[in-house]
Write a sequence for this structure.
């Protein structure tokens, strides 16, 4: 008789709201932040790794590697892995297979495509707060309190009602954003500060004009009786 939880793992489910691509870092290559959740992770033995297969669209050969998983995967947990050194403007087929100590689970396959920026001379960084490391932002240790990562679907009911957005900037109630509560117990003058990653801008762009302008933009939402 088989032990409970020793069945084949269910297929992972890819998350499709990531920008295409999330990072364009050099003239000939791009990277992509692959994201997925695991269907019914508690129904079988613990998933210890994923086998990642990737091949250029139209090619026969898969390149494979293992992605180790530490600890238990929670239901709905968003798992992120960065694919690097992808060649512009090629599309790629990605195959993801969960592995338990009993063997392989069901695979899922998707295609990721390169989309050129509006200005091909710009190096762009796109990121959403679905990313497990909140887009490389960090909490300031010297402020009074922290920003909280949440979505409309996971919103804590202890927060003041009728504040905060009804969805993320794409209109999704499952999409994440960074939030601060400005009512009690907050006091006037208190600060919560997120520090952005440092963007290294070369003084001369070898692939475009030497006087290229750079722009940092983000979406924000302010709502409440006293805003």
């Amino acid at each position: 008789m088989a032990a409970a939880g020793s069945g084949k793992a269910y297929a992972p489910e890819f998350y499709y709201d990531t920008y295409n691509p999330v990072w364009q870092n050099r003239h000939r290559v791009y990277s992509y932040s692959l994201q997925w959740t695991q269907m019914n992770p508690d129904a079988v033995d613990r998933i210890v790794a994923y086998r990642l297969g990737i091949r250029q669209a139209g090619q026969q050969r898969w390149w494979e590697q293992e992605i180790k998983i530490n600890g238990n995967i929670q239901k709905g947990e968003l798992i992120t892995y960065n694919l690097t050194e992808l060649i512009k403007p090629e599309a790629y087929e990605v195959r993801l297979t969960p592995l338990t100590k009993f063997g392989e689970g069901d695979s899922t396959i998707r295609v990721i495509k390169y989309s050129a920026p509006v200005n091909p001379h710009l190096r762009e960084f796109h990121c959403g707060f679905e990313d497990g490391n909140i887009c490389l932002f960090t909490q300031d240790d010297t402020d009074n309190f922290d920003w909280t990562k949440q979505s409309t679907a996971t919103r804590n009911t202890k927060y003041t009602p009728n504040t905060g957005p009804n969805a993320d900037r794409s209109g999704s109630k499952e999409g994440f954003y960074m939030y601060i509560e400005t009512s009690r117990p907050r006091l006037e003058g208190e600060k919560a500060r997120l520090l952005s990653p440092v963007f290294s801008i070369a003084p001369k762009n070898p692939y475009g004009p030497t006087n290229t302008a750079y722009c940092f933009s983000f979406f924000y939402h302010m709502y409440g009786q006293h805003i």
User: Anything to note?
Assistant: Confidence is low (pLDDT under 50) at residues 203-209. The longest strand covers residues 29-38.
